[in-house]
Amino acid sequence: MDSVVHFEMAYENRDRMTKFYETAFGWETHALGPDMWNYVIVRTTETGPDRMAIHPGAINGGFHEKPSDPVAQAPSVVIAVMDVREAMQKITAAGGRLLTEPMEIPGVGQYVSFLDTEGNRASILQPLAPLPGQ
């Protein structure tokens, strides 16, 4: 079974968003630069040496700059898969629509966004290294 491993939300003002989640929930943030699309990684739970959540069911996430496309503005989840190309075929066969081609996230893996049959945006990720339990 492929599991949700990450969440994503958009921001308009990175500093304001960072301050809010650090203050309101105690999350740890790590802002990346333009070479990583100004993404902000957030740690919402304790992680092990592999940077993966150690509590079953807990996930970490990230924030991206808010795009003009309303669909891409909605919060979404990232699902880990063993083979991104095979998962892309399964998504389209099940009635979903791919939004992007595989994108290499340096040091992380192959990433693809899609819409499910209900119009919800989600993503799949083929990690460079297998995740625990895969």
Structural summary, described in words:
By secondary structure, the chain is α+β, with helices and mostly antiparallel strands. It has a single domain, classed as 2,3-Dihydroxybiphenyl 1,2-Dioxygenase, domain 1. It contains 3 helices and 9 strands, in the order E-H-E-E-E-H-E-H-E-E-E-E. Strands 1, 2, 3, 4, 5, 6, 7, 8 and 9 form a 9-stranded mixed β-sheet that branches. Strand 2 and strand 3 form a beta hairpin. It is globular and about 45 Å long. The protein starts with a strand and ends in a 7-residue tail after the last strand. The model has no long low-confidence stretch (mean pLDDT 92).
Please tag this protein with its features.
3 helices; 2,3-Dihydroxybiphenyl 1,2-Dioxygenase, domain 1; nine-stranded mixed beta sheet; alpha+beta; single chain; 134 residues
Strand tally: 9
The global form is globular
Low-pLDDT residue intervals, each spanning 5 or more residues:
none
Determine the mean pLDDT: 92
Return the CATH class. Answer: Alpha Beta
Number of helices: 3
By CATH's scheme, which homologous superfamily applies? 2,3-Dihydroxybiphenyl 1,2-Dioxygenase, domain 1
Helical content, roughly? 10-25%
Secondary-structure element series: EHEEEHEHEEEE
Reported by name, the CATH topology is 2,3-Dihydroxybiphenyl 1,2-Dioxygenase, domain 1
Largest sheet: 9 strands, mixed
Assembly category: single chain
Report the β-strand fraction as a percent range.
Answer: 25-35%
Radius of gyration: 15 Å
Class computed from helices, strands and strand pairing: alpha+beta
Beginning-to-end CA distance, first to last residue: 9 Å
Which CATH architecture would you pick?
Roll
Domain count, please report it: 1
